[in-house]
Amino acid sequence: MSQKCATDYCRRTSRALCKCCNQDLCLQHIWQHKDLIIFQFNTLKREINEVNSRLNFVDIPKSTTAFREQMKQWRADSYTIIDRFYEQKCEELNQYIKEKIDDQREYINRLQKRIDEFIENEYGNQQDIHLIKLNINDFNEKIDKIEQTSFPMTISPLVIDKNLIQIRL
Questions:
Q1: Which of 115, 107, 113, 111 minimizes the C-alpha distance to 143?
Q2: 167 phi, psi to nearest 5 deg
């Protein structure tokens, strides 16, 4: 039993099965169908050529201008953060030194009062003098350390995560 052509309003008998769309078509419509497919492929080929031609004229520096501006701003913001961190740590160091000096000054004041008491009350001995000399030597060593800025600290390198900035299209 023969099939009719799958094209609307066609009364002819189908002569071929189109493998791309799985339709039974008459000879006239199979040729039209083939021509239509070739026409569509030719149209796609022209469109691909146009797209390829456009790619040849893409201005990469112009296309990346906004990205580069964002990167410049990110870099400036990052430098600001680093500068603030630097200033904060310098202030912490200054505060640390000030506290150490204040502690030493307080201890020196107590030692001076004690010497004043020894002088005023006329009591004290060689052992007291020896201990005071040891304290003075100890103070001088601590002041030397402060002046040489030999403070215990650990500085880790700045680590930048490579995923910090991701480029997506």
A1: 107
A2: -100, 120
